[in-house]
Design a protein that fits this description.
Strand content: 5-15%
Pfam families: DUF7343
InterPro entries: ArsR-like_HTH, DUF7343, WH-like_DNA-bd_sf, WH_DNA-bd_sf
Number of strands: 3
CATH superfamily of the largest domain: Winged helix-like DNA-binding domain superfamily/Winged helix DNA-binding domain
Order of helices and strands: HHEHHEEH
Radius of gyration: 25 Å
Protein name: DUF7343 domain-containing protein
Keywords: Membrane, Transmembrane, Transmembrane helix
CATH topology of the largest domain: Arc Repressor Mutant, subunit A
Number of domains: 2
Distance between the termini: 74 Å
């Protein structure tokens, strides 16, 4: 008859295998669901009206502008604009280049920004 140590080791090994299998099946199911979602059902992140204004402004300015000019022209406080630009940059939509004493804000993915603006306009029409 096997000793208690061996039985405990076997039970622990069986538990590890069971948990690994359960995770593998769960993860495979999540990937399958994500891959099978049609592009028309993928939701874009939500953006505030001010963030949408900043993106529209940049589109009108050929994709780049001084951060100070954006704030002045759109009447957005410096701190609020800085947070907005940082959030949009984290989402991969904008980049900030420091040139001397000035920050230039650039659109990094023009097509995606245009899609966001179009979808926000469509949502406003529906409401």
């Amino acid at each position: 008859m096997p000793s208690t140590g061996i039985m405990l080791t076997l039970a622990l090994a069986q538990l590890v295998v069971t948990i690994s299998l359960a995770y593998f099946l769960y993860d495979a199911n999540r990937k399958y669901i994500a891959m099978s979602t049609p592009a028309s059902e993928i939701r874009l992140p939500s953006f505030t009206d001010d963030e949408l204004m900043v993106m529209k402004y940049l589109l009108e300015k050929d994709g780049q502008a001084l951060q100070a000019s954006i704030g002045k022209d759109l009447n957005i406080p410096k701190a609020s604009l800085s947070r907005m630009v940082k959030r949009l940059a984290e989402n991969g939509l904008l980049a900030v280049e420091k040139r001397g004493r000035y920050n230039y804000v650039l659109i990094t993915n023009r097509e995606y920004v245009e899609k966001i603006i179009r979808s926000s306009n469509n949502e406003k029409v529906k409401q």
